[in-house]
Amino acid sequence: MSTAVLTINKGLSGGLNLRQKTILLISFMSLLLLTIVICSLFINERSLSTDFDSKNLAPSLKHPFGTDWMGRDMFIRTIEGLGLSIMIGAFVSLISTLISVILGLFSSVGKIADSFVSWLVDLFLSIPHLLLIILISIGFGGGATGVIIGVALTHWPSLTRVVRAEIKQLKTQEYVHISRNFGKSRWWIATKHILPHLIPKFILGTILMFPHAILHEASITFLGFGLSPHEPAIGIILSESMKYLSAGYWWLAFFPGLSLLIVILAFDMIGENLGKLMNPKKAHD
Hints:
It is built from eleven helices and no strands. It is mainly alpha-helical.
């Protein structure tokens, strides 16, 4: 049987080109992430109810990730925490991308606007990232709203810098000079000529922003500045598990941490392979 499986895998690897393999990998990773989000939405309070007769149980077939000190199933808590983190990452990435779009297009209006955007990017990048997220999150009252605003307002500078450099290159193109000679306004050129070329950058930037947003959400929640303790977030799960590691309950931190790492790697692989599809040199291999 193992020989048959190896033969099938060899045939698939030999029959698929790079583009097909890339699309297949993106589809699989996207399906995995979508499954986590959908499963987290169907988890009810009864599934997370306490059962002190089953507290601190090691991983088993009934409880794959074990149970915590209150008898709650760690697999269910981890799935709900991952779903929450992915949804927060989605909001954060979209908001950050929108800010990058606005500032990137604004920088193409003129030298003064470009200098202002450059100064604003340097200002945000000069402040320690995690500290800025914590300050903004606390300033907006903490919780899910504070986390989303805090992470969103600190993740746009890198993408804005990339967009700004791309815009400078596009402004040197011949068709831009022709439109300017025909009397088209700077805003018309920005929206009609420059923006369509930037859409792939925005899509790729949004996806690559996901893992950073999720990690920073988990980090500030782990430190106690993010989501409220009653939320089943991964950061809260890891923070609570630290108290019980010395007692030998390793599964309380191992499986949630490993699951978070898998989700981060899934987003990273989607972004990396999507970049290959958008690359003209590799898209048709």
